[in-house]
Amino acid sequence: MTFDIKQQVTDRIIAAIENGATKKGQLWVNAGGSAMPMNYRTKRPYNGVNVLLLWLEAEARGIERQEWMTYKQANEIGGQVRKGAKGCPIVYFKMLEKDAPTEDGSAETKRIPMARSFTVFNVADIDGLPAAEELPGGFEPHSTAEHIMRASGAEIIETGTKAFYQPATDAVHLPDRARFANQENFYHVAVHELTHWTGGEKRLNRDFSKRFGDEAYAFEELVAELGSAFMLSRIGLTSSELQYHASYIEGWLKVLKGDKSAIFTAASRASAAYQYLLDSAGLNAAEDADYAQAA
């Protein structure tokens, strides 16, 4: 490889945050029509950092459909990528086995994730495809969000004016619904706080304090916001807004600029939280066969 995949991805995410840091509302959910990117050939959603990369690509190019596939996949179903079409590089991880010496002189085999890049093309740039198919959906968005909240098993208290997850009581606190400008904003905040809840010791046990030190809190906020973005796109709630505290954005940029693997970790942990909530609700979040997240 002639370039550093992790650094390239990180630089793109940093640029997106810096360019959107002073704008009102979402950094991620409003990109590319808000649909969860999916592979047109396999009908499976992409995962982890690839969701962010495809959202950003769609936003930059004004693409409305979030359906993508490789050149080879297009050919397999009779499609042809147009000459000169621009593809979007995304990432997959291949697990490599490597023998490493131990203290007693013996050797043990370790599995090491190795990042690789490949390119996908949007269906808008592929000729010869069958008639356009609708993206997976059909949910009643608000009822689905309510089901996810109930099925999580979390204690959710709706009162007052603040939204937060309280580890000491293992409870999610949300403001009264009447305080929100619209229902979408309420569910955005609710899923954001539920994503925090999934990180509890009894569940996914997320703890970033050793790795990120003083920025661990801001990093957890990034995970919660990505997890919420993934979920809202999955269930069709795409017009919500969440205001970011300036310190969060500053913390995110500090971490990402100092650690090129950080965005992969954030996206991976967010995907795990998103999957946890969907599994609890009996919904499906199948991974794309072309991509396996590791961090």
From TrEMBL:
| Protein's recorded name | Antirestriction protein
Q: Where is the N-terminal domain?
A: 4-121
The UniProt record lists the Polyvalent protein metallopeptidase domain at: 144-268
Q: Which Pfam families does this one have?
A: ArdcN, MPTase-PolyVal
Q: Which InterPro entries match?
A: Antirestriction_ArdC, ArdC_N, MPTase-PolyVal
Recorded GO MF terms? single-stranded DNA binding
Q: Which domain of life is it from?
A: Bacteria
